[in-house]
Amino acid sequence: MIGRRRGVELKTADQMRQMRRAGLVVAQAHAELAEAAAPGVTTGELDQLAREVLARNGASSSFLGYGAGFGLPPYPAVACISVNEEIVHGIPGERVLADGDLVSFDFGAIIGGWHGDGAVTFPAGEWTPERRRLSDVTRDALWAGIGAARLGGRVSDISHAVEEFIESCDDHEFGIVEEYTGHGIGSAMHQPPDVPNYGRPGRGPKIVEGLCLAVEPMITWGSAETATLDDEWTVVTRDSSDAAHWEHTITVTKRGLWVLTALDGGEEALGRLGLPFGPLAD
Predict the structure, then answer these.
(1) pLDDT tens digit string along 250-261?
(2) CB-count exposure of residue 261 (10 Å: 0-12, 13-18, 19+)
(3) Domains of the chain by start residue, with CATH
(4) How many CB atoms neighbour CB 129 within 10 A?
């Protein structure tokens, strides 16, 4: 049975194991698309590869057709592929990747009715130093946020840690996108509570066993002001500066942190940060 606490869905151990299965499909797609992205490849070809990952694993897409019940055109792909100044929700198609393009790949999978959701940013070809730095800061801010999650804490502890890490980077003034946030996840892709990437700690719902969250900082090289293109999906920076997006689905157990969309469950990264790794036993 699914539990609820003030509108927040709490999962059983078996339900979280199902989410881990979905998360592994997400992690596999991330790895395959990062390998496949190269100059001359179209974003539509990458989306087709993502469809093949779903099919091989008997999974369905969290994204395909999304938005139809919210006054938006149904999303036409299984992946959001955003390039350079595109922050999130880029629709894959005929765009041909060029050497050095910054590619953000957001992907969701469903196994047995349970969702996994994650995003990575990688280069097509060779990084420029600025684009590598932007992606690295966004990824490290994600892990700072994950590391702030602990049983008995509050959701905004994650938000504060993301913001604090980004503001500690004294080599460049990065923009934090505020209109789009992380979220609860489980039997639906988007659930309460929201997980902003900024804010004061000690606020919001309490982090308890069975709560699963998608943490996803979106960081820009320039202004964080956004605009949405005429397709009603693609979100871009107003000043055309680059953006990066990293995301993991996580939960906190009595043993520690479990990153459901990382191939190793987050063990390596958490170990480097001196944080407890807490997967549920199979």
Answers:
(1) 999 999 999 999
(2) buried
(3) 3-272 (3.90.230.10)
(4) 7
